[in-house]
Amino acid sequence: MIENSGKDTFEVSSEALSQTGSKYFDDDGRPKRTGTVLTSSAHIITAVIGSGVLSLAWAIAQLGWVAGPAVMILFSMVTYYTSTLLAACYRTGDQLSGKRNYTYTQAVSSYLGGANVKFCAWVQYLNLFGVAIGYTIAASISMMAVKRSNCYHFSGGKNPCKMNSNFYMISFGVAEIIFSQIPDFHDLWWLSVLAAVMSFTYSFIGLGLGVGKVVGNGRIKGSMTGVTVGASVTEAQKVWRSFQALGNIAFAYSYSMILIEIQDTVKSPPAESKTMSKATLVSVLVTTIFYMLCGCFGYAGFGDASPGNLLTGFGFFNPYWLIDIANVAIVVHLVGAYQVYCQPLFSFIERQAKQRFPDSDFMSREYEVPIPGCKQPYKLNFFRLVWRTIFVILSTVIAMLLPFFNDIVGLLGAIGFWPLTVYFPVEMYIVQTKIPKWTMKWICLQMLSAASLVITLVAAAGSIAGVVSDLKVYKPFVTSY
Description:
The chain is mainly alpha-helical. The chain has one domain (36-471): Amino acid/polyamine transporter I. The chain contains 15 helices and four strands. Strand 1 and strand 2 (99-100) form a beta hairpin. It is found in: Cell membrane; Endomembrane system.
C-alpha cells in the first residue's frame, strides 16, 4: 500500500492517519512528539553552556563587581522574557490548534513576512557563519595550550614554547571538512551527545580551578569598577572593553535562534508555549547560576588580570594534566558544536540550490559509495562535497586572519542579540496578541527593543575596536604566541 503513488497514496495515508489517531501522529500529520519540560531544558542548557562561558571572567573584570553580575542578571531576565514571547509565537493563531511554525524563519514569515524574513535569514545565517569562525579560533587556542603545556614541562621551563596558530586551525578545518560531509543533521546525534558531555566537563574544570585559585590566593581579587585605568589600560580602552564585555555576555546567553526548533519537539497538550516557558525558566536559572559561579570565581581569582579564555589563565602550572583534559574537552566539544550550528546553514543553501536547478545532476544526484564495515552506503553528492568544503576553508582562512577570541565572541553576541533575541520576538508577539499601538504595553515593548538595539550597537563597536587594536600588532599568518 505504501508503494502506491499519486492520489491512491494520499487516500491511504489519510485513512491510516484517521485510524491511528493521535497515538502515532500529531495534528499536522507528522510523527508524534514526546518532548517535555525536562528534555527541552536539557536541549537549551546543552546549547547555551559552551565556549562562551570561558570569556565571562574577563567580561566581569571589565565591568567590576557591581556592574558585572548586574549586567549578567539583566541579560538573563531579558533573555527569559523575550524567550517566552517567542515561545508564544510557535503557533500562528490559537495556542493549541493554530498552524505550527517549525523554524525561527518560518515563524517570522508567518507573522511579519516581507523584508523581515530576509533580514532574519541574513542575520541568522551570518551569525552561524561567525560561530564557525569563532569556534575555529577557540579550538586552536585550546590545542596550542595543550602543546605549550607539555612543551613547558618536558623542557623544565627552559623553552618559551612559542608557536603559530595556523597549523592548529588548519587541522581543525580538515576535521570539519570530513564531518561536514555527513548528509543529514539527524545523523549527528552521537556527536551532539559527545559535545554536550565535553562542554560540562571543561566548564566544571574551569569552575573548580577558579575556586582553587581563590583559595590559594587567600583573598578575593577585583574591584567595584573593574579593570583600573593606568599604564596598561587607557580610559578609551576601558570604555571599549566594557562595551565588548556586553557582547561577550550576550553571546553566552544566545540560544533564541534554535528555540523554535527545540519547541517543535515538545508534545501537546498542554500548549507547547506553556511547556517551553517552564523549560526556559529552568534553563535560564541553571545557566545563570553556573555562569555567575564561573565568571565570579574567575574574576575573584585573577582580578584585573582575568584572561579572555579562563583556562589559559592557569598557565602551565600543576595540575597541568587537568588543564590539558579541559582543553582537549573543548576541542572535542567544538568539533561537534561546529556541526550543530552549521548544518542548518548547509541544508538551507542546498535546498535553495536544488530548487533553482532541479534538473542538475551536480546539485541533486546522490551516488552510493559502499563503506567497509557499514551496512548503509554513503550517499555522495558533488555539490554538497564542494560547497561544504569551500565553506569550511573560507571560515578557517578568516579565523587565521583574525584569531582574536574575545573580539570575535563579543561581535557574534552583538550581531545576534537585538534582532534574534529581542526584536523579532517582540514584533511577532505584538502581531500575535494584537497589541494596539501607543498603549502602555506596546510602548514598554518598543522601549525594551530600542534599549537592546543600543546595547547591540555599543557591543559591536567595542568588539570592532578590539579587532582594530589587535591588528596593529598582529601579522596574519606570521605572529606566534
